[in-house]
Amino acid sequence: MGEQLVAPIAIDHPTEAPILVGSGQPLLLIGGPCALESEQLARQVAGTLKAICARLGIRYVFKASFDKANRTSLRSYRGPGITEGLAILSRIRHELGVPVISDIHDVSQVDRAAEVLDILQIPAFLCRQTDLLVAAAETGKPVNVKKGQFVSPWDMENAVNKLRGAGGSRIMLVERGATFGYNNLVVDMRSLPVMRSFGCPVIYDATHSVQLPGGAGGSSGGQREFIVPLARAAMAVGIDGLFIEIHPQPEKALCDGPNSLPLDGIEPVLAQLLRIRAAL
């Protein structure tokens, strides 16, 4: 399969011209902690990554979930909730001048989230939920759909068609691994060109792809040591962006720490990945 050209889509930016994502455009980084833990931590991550991406020529979107409704345990940390979470994301968007993205889990959240977020994200477990996809598309916002661990890459065309059928035109698809037995995921790199063939920019989720779902008993584990090797492979295959969970202290993160990268080591990783992209 040759290189699939993807017409760029535009993501609104609070202080600059819209970000373009697709063929011929700079790499996009969607990065931040799994869930919002505190405004101070969110600002630290967003400000640091904004500066790093500016130095490297990467376009940046801050990611953190106001609610993680799909945690393993009832006791697992979910985030501050929609009201406080969107308020924090709004301040980061306007005061730090970076676009923001967060998960939506229910149709009732869509309109409130669309008032703040630059991109609406559909979690992997919900990628087949027609009402949620339609509601997200009807906002006119860009929609970032994570491929379910249980869904083939070619079946993601159905999600794309649902969004387009509801008027959505700015669609991104995310590869985050496929179920491989119990408590394990594996990445089929064929999924990247397959999903790009639908005419959508494709993002590789380097951190959830090494998650061990439920692998720590009451929470998910992860294999952080494989994040960078798999990101290198995805970059060589050809992608439009990277999704990376990044935390100042992953071992203390309240959510998905085992498959997050440390903030203080991310710049050389990104620089290396850019060199691979340039070689293409």
TrEMBL record:
Location comes to: Cytoplasm
Claim: Cell membrane is one of the keywords in the record: no
Instruction: Give a GO cellular-component term.
Output: cytoplasm
Which biological process annotations from GO are given for this protein? Answer: keto-3-deoxy-D-manno-octulosonic acid biosynthetic process
Q: Which residues form the DAHP synthetase I/KDSA domain?
A: 16-266
Per its UniProt record, what Pfam families does this chain match?
Answer: DAHP_synth_1 (PF00793)
Q: How would you classify this enzyme at the top EC level?
A: transferase
Q: What is its EC number?
A: 2.5.1.55
Which InterPro entries did the record assign?
A: Aldolase_TIM, DAHP1/KDSA, KDO8P_synthase
GO molecular function terms noted in the UniProt entry = 3-deoxy-8-phosphooctulonate synthase activity
Q: What is the predominant subcellular site recorded for this chain?
A: cytoplasm
Q: Which NCBIfam families match?
A: KDO8P_synth, PRK05198.1
Alphabetical list of HAMAP family matching this protein:
KDO8P_synth (MF_00056)
Query: What family does this belong to?
Result: Belongs to the KdsA family.
Q: What is this protein called?
A: 2-dehydro-3-deoxyphosphooctonate aldolase
Q: Which organism is it from?
A: Desulfoprunum benzoelyticum
> Gene that codes for this?
kdsA
